[in-house]
Amino acid sequence: IAGITQAPTSQILAAGRRMTLRCTQDMRHNAMYWYRQDLGLGLRLIHYSNTAGTTGKGEVPDGYSVSRANTDDFPLTLASAVPSQTSVYFCASSLSGGEDTEAFFGQGTRLTVV
Amino acid sequence: GQNIDQPTEMTATEGAIVQINCTYQTSGFNGLFWYQQHAGEAPTFLSYNVLDGLEEKGRFSSFLSRSKGYSYLLLKELQMKDSASYLCAVRDSNYQLIWGAGTKLIIKP
């Protein structure tokens, strides 16, 4: 079934540890995104990539890094986790970063940093 | 700054009609989206407006007024499965989505 897959679905992480959240899509979408969702706040963009080989910073990039080595994969890395990074993380993709109409979301990764 | 406002929570009765409002102030406008998000799940696309007026899709309709920075999502013949959060998002001049915090809709029998 075509779609977008995230792993892990949930994780408890000790502060200071490094963690990579995985995201893979098989829809051949050019654009991919990482959001975090916190209670009472809208989805906030962390990083994005409009095409393989390029990435950009979103609204809240500090403490996170991404890479886009190919079309399908867009991993998000927390170099040294802090409690304020406790959140639900959603990866999304869209056909392009421009005029297309909708983004497709993965099921999310619930991350708790203790 | 950029801002999307929508009510935090609304309650409606099964079979009734509910209107969820969204007002926005963004740097540029390249379309407005509504997404549905059930608790613990991913957001899913409902509707897209880029021109003024009403877009109808089954029981759901979405309206846009660009001059007023205003949109609403209208849900008719409410069903229990419509209990979810409804997210309003605007695509700004940089083609980035700016998201509201969402409206939690509670449907009562």
Please characterize this protein's 3D structure.
The complex is a heterodimer of chains A (114) and B (109). Chain A is mostly beta strands and 114 residues long. Chain A is built from no helices and eleven strands. In chain A, strand 4 (31-37) and strand 5 form a beta hairpin. With 109 residues, chain B is mainly beta. Helix content of chain B is 0%, strand content 57%. Chain B is built from no helices and eleven strands. In chain B, strands 2, 4, 5, 9, 10 and 11 form a six-stranded mixed beta sheet that branches. In chain B, strands 1-3-8-7-6 form a five-stranded antiparallel beta sheet, with no helix packed on it. Chain B is globular and about 40 Å long. The model of chain B has no long low-confidence stretch (mean pLDDT 95).
Key terms:
heterodimer; A: 114 residues; mainly beta; seven-stranded mixed beta sheet; four-stranded antiparallel beta sheet; B: mainly beta; 0% helix
